[in-house]
Fold this sequence. Notes:
The structure is a single chain. By secondary structure, the protein is of the alpha/beta class. The chain has 2 domains: 3-197, Rossmann fold; 205-321, Rossmann fold. The chain contains 10 helices and 18 strands. The strands form 5 sheets. Strands 4-1-5-7-8-9-12-13 form an 8-stranded mixed beta sheet, with helices on both faces. Strands 15-16-17-18 form a 4-stranded parallel beta sheet, with helices on both faces. A two-stranded antiparallel sheet has the order 2-3. The radius of gyration is 21 Å and the shape is elongated.
Amino acid sequence: MKNILLIQTGGTIAMSAQGDGVELNPDAWSDTLVERVPQLGDLAQIQTMPLFFEDSSDLNHTHWIKLAECIFEHYDEFDGFVVLHGTDTMAYTTSALSYALQNLSKPVIFTGSQVPLSSIRSDARRNLINSIEMATSNLQEVAICFNDHVYRGNRATKLSIGDFDAFGSPNLDPLATIGLEIKSRYLTRLITDPFSIKADYSNELLVLTVFPSLSINHLMNLDVSKLRAIIVRSFGSGNIPTKGEYSLLKFLQRCTDEGVIVAVVSQADFDAVNLGKYSAGRAVANAGAISAGDMTLEAALTKMMWLMAQYEDKAIIEAEFQKNLAGELTV
């Protein structure tokens, strides 16, 4: 029987109902998890670790580093890892860890729930059982297991607030679907280099969501001297306003002239940014922006944060950003 480390970070799965809402309750269940879901003991030998206990909306890059270091410290002791995590920022954390965990040859499965484990109609039990079973598999990457689907962590995004089917992977089929049988679609790789971590991130960036009538005056008054990158959430395949008083080209050109990286993702979930498709996109490219392809916002943002912590040179960061580093990008 395989050994699995179950790492607790908080989230709805660890909450309990109080009054009109739900609140984090660190003493509610962590020590008696196998008693609450006894089927888990039939799947693996499980050791639990309360790493931290937070609503996922309060997590940041310091927590990503703690998680990476925890997995690295215990990597040789366990066959797989399950991380209990809130759904709101789960896709950010899984994306961030996909870059930090180098030469990963064991499954790192994130899961959580839409309803606390303590509630009678919770989805937590099924998600836990599925995740522990996937952690005993030969999967070699960071993944999200939720509602009978397993998604690559840096391809997933949260799509629903209220449905049990909370996550999706718009531009990549699920790695596995779980029914009467587990149908896997992933391939194993021969990994000869030793497992290591590069868990550093820079937050010298911001995300700009383009919308009709966005004032260029607000943007031109922005002090970009403290920034190294801007992620632009464009329309469609990479389009932004380019005419008249609402043209954003002047701002983008100012950013690139001052050495700020401008990377373009789409507000649409499916398909890829193509800056050569329309005249507006070509103008964006001519201003010095680069395409994020079909990366999710979570994957692009955390990738940029990770790259800026690894490299100082703007040209290197831009080149690496446009490469597929951990399965996050279709090339």
